[in-house]
Amino acid sequence: MSAIWDKLHEECGVFGLYDVGDIEDIIADTYYGLYALQHRGQESCGMAVNDDGVIQLHKDVGLVSEVFSREVLERLPRGKMTVGHCRYATTGTRSASNAQPLVVRHVKGSMALAHNGNLTNAAELRREYEMQGAIFHSTSDTEVIAYTITRHRLQAASIQEAVVGAMAELKGAYSLVIMSPRKLIAARDPMGFRPLCMGRLGESVVFASESCALDAIGAVFVRDIDPGEVVVVSDGGSVESIRTHCAGERRAFCSFEYIYFARPDSVIDGSAVHTARQRAGALLALSHPVQADVVVGVPDSGLDAALGYAQQSGIPYGMGFLKNKYIGRTFIAPNQKQRENDVRIKLNPIAATVKDKRVVLVDDSIVRGTTSLKIVKLLREAGAREVHMRLSAPPFLYPCYFGTDIDSSENLIAYKHSVEEIAQIIGVDSLGFLPVEDLPKLPEGGCGGLCDACFTGNYPVEPPKAGAKSKFENKFSESTGD
Amino acid sequence: MSAIWDKLHEECGVFGLYDVGDIEDIIADTYYGLYALQHRGQESCGMAVNDDGVIQLHKDVGLVSEVFSREVLERLPRGKMTVGHCRYATTGTRSASNAQPLVVRHVKGSMALAHNGNLTNAAELRREYEMQGAIFHSTSDTEVIAYTITRHRLQAASIQEAVVGAMAELKGAYSLVIMSPRKLIAARDPMGFRPLCMGRLGESVVFASESCALDAIGAVFVRDIDPGEVVVVSDGGSVESIRTHCAGERRAFCSFEYIYFARPDSVIDGSAVHTARQRAGALLALSHPVQADVVVGVPDSGLDAALGYAQQSGIPYGMGFLKNKYIGRTFIAPNQKQRENDVRIKLNPIAATVKDKRVVLVDDSIVRGTTSLKIVKLLREAGAREVHMRLSAPPFLYPCYFGTDIDSSENLIAYKHSVEEIAQIIGVDSLGFLPVEDLPKLPEGGCGGLCDACFTGNYPVEPPKAGAKSKFENKFSESTGD
Amino acid sequence: MSAIWDKLHEECGVFGLYDVGDIEDIIADTYYGLYALQHRGQESCGMAVNDDGVIQLHKDVGLVSEVFSREVLERLPRGKMTVGHCRYATTGTRSASNAQPLVVRHVKGSMALAHNGNLTNAAELRREYEMQGAIFHSTSDTEVIAYTITRHRLQAASIQEAVVGAMAELKGAYSLVIMSPRKLIAARDPMGFRPLCMGRLGESVVFASESCALDAIGAVFVRDIDPGEVVVVSDGGSVESIRTHCAGERRAFCSFEYIYFARPDSVIDGSAVHTARQRAGALLALSHPVQADVVVGVPDSGLDAALGYAQQSGIPYGMGFLKNKYIGRTFIAPNQKQRENDVRIKLNPIAATVKDKRVVLVDDSIVRGTTSLKIVKLLREAGAREVHMRLSAPPFLYPCYFGTDIDSSENLIAYKHSVEEIAQIIGVDSLGFLPVEDLPKLPEGGCGGLCDACFTGNYPVEPPKAGAKSKFENKFSESTGD
Amino acid sequence: MSAIWDKLHEECGVFGLYDVGDIEDIIADTYYGLYALQHRGQESCGMAVNDDGVIQLHKDVGLVSEVFSREVLERLPRGKMTVGHCRYATTGTRSASNAQPLVVRHVKGSMALAHNGNLTNAAELRREYEMQGAIFHSTSDTEVIAYTITRHRLQAASIQEAVVGAMAELKGAYSLVIMSPRKLIAARDPMGFRPLCMGRLGESVVFASESCALDAIGAVFVRDIDPGEVVVVSDGGSVESIRTHCAGERRAFCSFEYIYFARPDSVIDGSAVHTARQRAGALLALSHPVQADVVVGVPDSGLDAALGYAQQSGIPYGMGFLKNKYIGRTFIAPNQKQRENDVRIKLNPIAATVKDKRVVLVDDSIVRGTTSLKIVKLLREAGAREVHMRLSAPPFLYPCYFGTDIDSSENLIAYKHSVEEIAQIIGVDSLGFLPVEDLPKLPEGGCGGLCDACFTGNYPVEPPKAGAKSKFENKFSESTGD
After folding, report:
1. Minimum-distance CB partner of D28 among C63, C263, C335
2. Rounded alpha-carbon distances, angstroms, from residue C168 to C108, C121, C444
3. Which pLDDT value is given to residue C409?
4. How confident is the model at residue B83 (pLDDT cuts 50, 70, 90)?
């Protein structure tokens, strides 16, 4: 899909389940939980099961439905706890080596970790550990987190004490689910960059990146994990909250979760995602009004905001495109004509909606602009008289160091071009982005503080030094030595 | 998908391409054409290529993207003509034996056929041929059609004369694409039950079940094949129309193509499908009005009509559900809880839209009622105060003999229950079906006559005798002999 | 394997099982029976099961162990009769369309056929049927046989009468297992070109191409089917033998079955294959003696004859090569060096055996000579001082029309070169072929007459006219019409 | 295969290649090298390529031909160095987590390791590192070795210095190939338990477990790596030998490598494996003579010794069995009859050889005795009058701690029964094992000292304490903590 679609990628979804004895099939529930989080990572996925203290792991490259065949699901033991993960990887090669959960053995036993986010001081920590003889199997931050917890575990009285100790050293974004032989632990960084919530399935406890995963298994949403909080589930399902790191730092929840990453049916930090997107559309209608005949959204990510724009502006909402729902690992023929047509395979304009109309086209954002150009062209060919594009995000200008793949300003069209230039490049009659100052209005009650660094460069945590946005996924490079 | 979704199935999509020399990659274009027709049949698919008179065939069980791997696509010769097909099979076993196109060799050479529809006199013809020593490899009507054409070919001066001759014997629904060593032929039964259209890709000629397949490859729509018409493309791309069977019989285009089967972005027999569905919603708003706060559609098939209902009624349109777009060959855990929850894995209500609201829920139709029951339950759990269900089709009461899988009145909830009873069974506050008399209003200009037999029992062609709705897919039964 | 090995191929193995009620798992037994016949055809395989008159079929491209996964084996019904087949196809493309058994439905019910051999009048029969309106799905002789039986079935009182009637029209080689709704039938052509035997598994009846398949399932060998005989198993396992075609024609059992095709542990027409091969080696030692230090065979097909040569000559038998037993669908790197080395991947000389020795190298036959050249080179590199090659078959000079893939004299090194020239081409110090006149001595008692046409051109049945050795496998060509 | 065959398993094969610039395709050569070592490990395999200092890795569960598809082979970069590995794993679950090579990153860069053998102090070293904060991803000794080298690397001037330093701490068996960013290193433990040799492919350098892998790629054998030696290949292919650990300790090469594990065409430590096995047969004929008519070997591992027995005794050598060469991942039907027959699917006696004969049956060893029992039964059924079994190994009595899977005396039939009892259990007329005192005679010149601990309990290195034969493959157990 990535091959024909110019979108940002979230890098992970996490899930955990602690069965107090009332769960019929913990493997099935974990499977469906991951399934509901698939949008947060389509490259690889995995599940670790704690079977009476022994951790079994299955992970591989592929979608949840591919990695977990019927055979695999039947073979996994029906243990008492699970940790699950799905992941987007930025490299092209299919490799399972960075898949999660990460399962390691340390002096006090074994531990499984699932992580969503990005540390800003991973390189420093890694270097420090390497100087003491540590070896690393991957380039993932998760392995750095595992080391940090392990080192604290040597002195700590309990695994949760080790997690709390490690959090004092970890900088950046992390929503974690950790499984020890006898406990299941959820932890969220002090600024709460990435979502993490807790639910109950009967008396059993569930952790998930988004509430939609709770819905998928029929669990009841209990609450979000607070920024800085550590929640520990231990024997019999008793739940302990440790708030050592919940002090008064600012919150910095990723605004792009509301705009694009999260599923519209999730509720995060008190605010429904669908509503936030609809509101973005309504705010766009206020800041960038236009005379038009129909408002259409780019499926699926522009639909909510398009509805909001239509309702606010009074211009009728229409269905502008048919999205081919069988799109998958489609082979794209390597010839010129097909490459130009690639979007058409996924999206076909509904001429009945747009022909001879002035169309407001709503999408969530523009990264490089290549896809927008093609979509606008399709609309014109289908007979649209005017195309007015509205984006429910401000222009991307700065790299993200907290868990998405905006890796360099160089690849961002808005970094190099003015709004007018972009309008001309993608061929629209007018172009409007969500004003940055409208961002705080998206979640209900403002959500206590959003991260808008990719739009403003205003980083809530100091970014890593010197191009530290690692490019070494699945490779190991060597600068020194022999 | 079928395992968790109570829907009718179309049985086929057909495609053909005749390259006059301006097509860059005929295999890629056929692939994308089939891809766009995938909704008409997800069980098996195939492609036959005419490489200088020699026909090569690749077909198998699976989606287009599965059957046609990069390897297969590269291996197939870049011939001058292709015929493609995708198919829904009613049996549970995965078998390639009924996949199409069917390629056969007869006395005058070889021939490939792709067929959408169902004959009503297949059993009689089959028996007649068997009495003369014929053997059959499958139970499909397509093999009967191939025999009929072959028998006419013995005397006919040309393949097209044989096709026209055969059509005098074939009763029922058939939209055919036929490839002989030197010609590509499209034929539609005299009542035009199933869609079939023609386009141009440059000077080359394309046939497809729906116009969306033309769009997918950048071809220009030329016109629908008329009921009873035979269109022959031969050397150099010359196009001949034979109208022997286009006489004054009534038209009987399947009304359920407009309501559910066809893709909303297709235009069939002069009428846009999306518009027909929107109109169905508007007509429902007129015939079954209700006081409510929001109109939501069941994704994806109820969305167009929901928009029409909203626009006509003035009740706001909302997004009621999030459909998991990664749904595929999902393994459904075989325990009771999961079976109850199965719809939830595919659809999750967006509580922000429906909570404390009076909801108009629009879907296309009800078959057995099992899925509707679950969807309504989901809405209630998400806080909907009232649920008023509206269906953009009339109640199904009679089996279809023309190419869909309504096989017996016994399985149709509306055959056994009144509207009030159904409302009670599925748990809605009110229930309204599209009035049968509104059906002709769906397509623009009425489309010259629709088949509404599944709603009315008024069959445009005499149905087969004695429960002839065959159950022998992929099996061979034996009543006599030894 | 074929890619790196210059060998002739047998084209089929057949198997049938009729359960009188004492078989634990008919599917497992058929699977193991086919498994034991795998050497007769590695390209595709299949199994048809008669489940109370309804025939279910599973066949595909691949080895028995690949086509019949655990899932498939579990899914197939435990019926009362089975027919199995494995096949070698001469085309490079992987296609299931010519796989067997062939299952067809005719006027008196359905029928499954498995065939080993080649008809010499298939083209004439095919043409005759086509002129009467028949259509063909494949280019296989099996479909012609099915038609012929079907046509006789129209008038015949029983399926066996139809088979006997059809045999009067079929010319050439055929060992058949046929399953009707209620009967299992074995038939062998009047000259007995290909093997076919009968066994008992308890009271149940088994048919198989070779006795090794009986051994594999623990069945007891009963007897060979006689040339021209039809054996019918019907209700309760009663066995009837019809000897209409067993008249006094000459026998013509394929001599190359003894030399190479059959498994050494099989006993065919009264003679053990291993013994026949050992005897071939002994006869070679008599006709082509040489002073040497060690006799080695080319694994696996030259080992038996090498042992015979060693025993007769008194020269010690040695192990000259290690054959890599993991060889399978190995990817051969497409560069020059690797292509030269390809044999080395499969065979490695054991230097300890051949270094500084005068070596007698025994193999079964030479086709094009390419493999022999490489093997001799390996021996020289391993230090062999002299290499004396002995072949347990006479030189191939003529095409075979009875079921192997010697398709043209052009590809046979012995057709174009003298023995001395061949010796020089492949680089041996001396070369000796089995004298044609020794052929009748291979089987015990001479076996009643062998076919030696590929060595002598003396065809026991008139070969087809005009290069009728078909090249159309899996393709359909067109000479006339449109 | 393991499911139906009662054999010991070697645990690994290693391979390395350093291209000085004259190798056409380093990936193809590594592939064929691994292919030739497949018999040393069939569970998983892998290859690491050094592409200008960046190490890319591909490894997975499966045979070499399965893991390295054409696609994978084409995708891997044509770097300058490779390390390859194939592995047998003792657990039943298919998991890639213990597959090798192991690639890790430490403070001075990255490193790939491939290991054959077993450490006896792995648990102690692991514990020591864990107490200092180390985490482990696997339970393999290889990770312990990687840590040990890494810790030495912190102070060492070079990677080879670190390897030599680490060797002072590692106890037990290890044949290693190590790749650093700029060097390829081979190291063998001071007693030389496992084989390791060096060759030249042109000027390029090859390391491999056995010489057969050199043959497979056309490389020339140079010499064995000496026990305790470290060989370093660096820039331009210069080769350095470090003999720090080559001091006067006793040698202890695994005698079972000669008897069973190694390929007969390999030459190890100066002695041809085939010759060693033939000699074992001859020695058996001297120590356990018998009056008989034919000597047959159990394919493939008993064939060489059978030939030696025949030559020494003068009793004719015969082919007693046909081994089905298509045996692979065969599904064994889970019913009683089939389980009894399982050996028959793989081996079929050749009745012509054994009927009415007094048979000497030669195999390499007896582990549990279950397979021998079945083979003897097959011979009896085929008509053998007497069966005299001879084993080319002494009886197994003690566990092995140096790289094979003899894990407990409890599973060894010879530990619990006398020779006479075993003869009775497996049903032979006489039974003879190779006398332990004959072991040193197998290799030419005695090979400087063999390990015979599994036969004598005389361990050359102190075995680990307290049942340290780990059972934790692929699982992580937890005794303490939470």
Report:
1. C335
2. 21, 12, 31
3. 83
4. very high
